[in-house]
Amino acid sequence: MRSTSPRPTRVPGPLARAAVALAFWVTMAGTTVPTPLYPLYQHAFGFSPFIVTVIFAVYALGVVAGLLTLGRLSDEVGRRPVMATALLLAAAAAGLFEAADSLPWLLIARVVSGLAAALITGAATAALLDLAPPEKRLRAQTLALAANMGGLAGGTLLSGALAEWAGSPLRLPWTVTLALTTVALAALPTVPETVTRTVRGPGGVRLRFQPLRVPAGIRPAFLRAALAGGSGFAVLGVLTSVSGLFLGTVLNIHHHALTGLVVCLAFAATALGQLLARVLPKPRALPIACAGLVLAAALIATALLTETLPPLLLGACVNGLATGTAVGTGLGAVNGGVAPQQRGAAVSTFFAILYAMLSVPVVGVGVLIQATDLRTAGVTFSALVALLALGVAAGLLRRPRPASAPGPALAEPAARSAATRPSGHMAEEA
Fold it and tell me: 14-195 falls under which CATH superfamily?
């Protein structure tokens, strides 16, 4: 028999919460460090734009694998060991990238990076909530969101700046990442463990597959939010994987820091969109998100057709806002319409859909680039995203149904397994 419960301790100081946030930030930053470097890897190793999209897509495989098998691990063994494991995996991924001299190294590094993201998101979000007094839970959730999305935004910005203005662009960003990961590991002992594990019998800790399940009571709202959020995730995936190629081949701008800025803006706006979902009127949140996705697709298509940068920057921001709003609305439906013992499976399913839509369309765009060119592939993809968003909006008009009140969403294009643990008081916060 196995049980976990928050360990009663004195309220920790800000140093412990800062250490958890740093671990979260560093691990998520490592997942986007490769973004401005993809054109350099392509040149160094001689692979096609299609392979660039595959390298990006395998990250999602690591995230989903971690989400479905390791999402509850911090409930089993404790928050701190899982965070330490995530940081070690992040360091291993950085080391693999730094030593990479061929495509297989990059693919393995991306999968390891995805596993690290899946582990840290669940454990760090849970730890921040455990360490917060009850009256400051919302603040802790906001801190988790800032660390999560801030890492995704900061990693690509840091990497782009180093690649543009410092030497060894395929080595130095990873050296800095390893140094930051070392600092985060060194700070981790300041974090008190909040989970007490009691194991009776020979079973010990077991890895269990988290089944995918959509509760019937919220199925329409759930699927609409997942499709809208997944559309935005697909755009985030394409921006992350091919922004450098677009700037270099279409705009003839070879500037790694600018590539990092495009993706940074998209992730920062996604965080703002999740905060926006908390305050928008319930019936309007998802229609607004769908309208934003259509507008973003139009802006990105305009950037491709006119070969201009401003519509791309604006489209990245609008898509992020719309995506965050849709994800926040979907999690709100789960929080408000699913029993605590079912929330873990429901949120796992939600993010499995999002990450499938993050990776599969990216590979499709790579195939289209091979068959046509980047501009044609990008415009076709934008049109499909707009059509999917319009389809979701049409479904809302045909069958208007107020969505559940959006709860404090903690997700991001990274593993969002925070809500995959239905045990203990975290079930009510997930």
Answer: MFS general substrate transporter like domains (1.20.1250.20)
